[in-house]
Amino acid sequence: MKAAERGVGAVAAIMVLVVLAALSAAIVRMGWTMQTARSQTVQAAQALQAANAGVQWGLNEALHGTWTTCGTGSRVIDLRPRVAFTVVVTCQYDSYNEGESAPDTPRAVGVYTIEATACTSATTCPDPAMVSQPTYVERVRRAVATNKGFED
């Protein structure tokens, strides 16, 4: 064996080790990214359900509870002990005359717009300070309802 050929096997072995280390690092990084994406997907689904719950609560309060004219602005529902979300529910009330309930008597109809914002912030939703954080999740749901049925 010539002196120039000596150590070629060691160089090849080092190259194989470097390639295997790079592949291992890429696989670990891909697994971490997939785990983070899965976690964010679960949190997004939970935030959507929390926002849905906020809309349902707001509709119930507006149509059957104490929020009949939406006079108190927004309300905060703290779900952090159970699902780590804060929900801010806002209500807007508009009154319209639609047709007549009797001759020359306008039929008043109240229209409620309920908006619920659910997020992982501990203070309020939406939270501009937390938007850039990778663990921040926010979802918004909106519903429009009237206080009169079709039969009234």
Report on the structure:
The protein has two helices and four strands. A hairpin with a 2-residue loop joins strand 2 and strand 3. Helix content is 40%, strand content 30%. It has one domain. The protein is rod-shaped and about 115 Å long. The longest helix has 57 residues.
Number of strands: 4
Which percent bin holds the helix content? Answer: 40-55%
Distance between the termini: 103 Å
> Structurally, how many domains make up the residues?
1
Give average pLDDT, whole number: 84
Helix count equals 2
Spans of at least 5 consecutive residues with low confidence: none
Characterize the quaternary organization of these chains. Answer: single chain
Strand order of the largest sheet: 1-2-3-4
Shape: rod-shaped
Structural class: alpha+beta
Order of helices and strands: HEHEEE
Strand content: 25-35%
**Main beta-sheet strand count, sense and barrel state:** 4 strands, antiparallel
Nutshell version of this structure?
By secondary structure, the protein is α+β, with helices and mostly antiparallel strands. It has helices at residues 8-64, 80-83, and strands at residues 75-78, 86-102, 105-119, 138-146. The chain has one domain (3-146).
Features:
152 residues, alpha+beta, four-stranded antiparallel β-sheet, rod-shaped
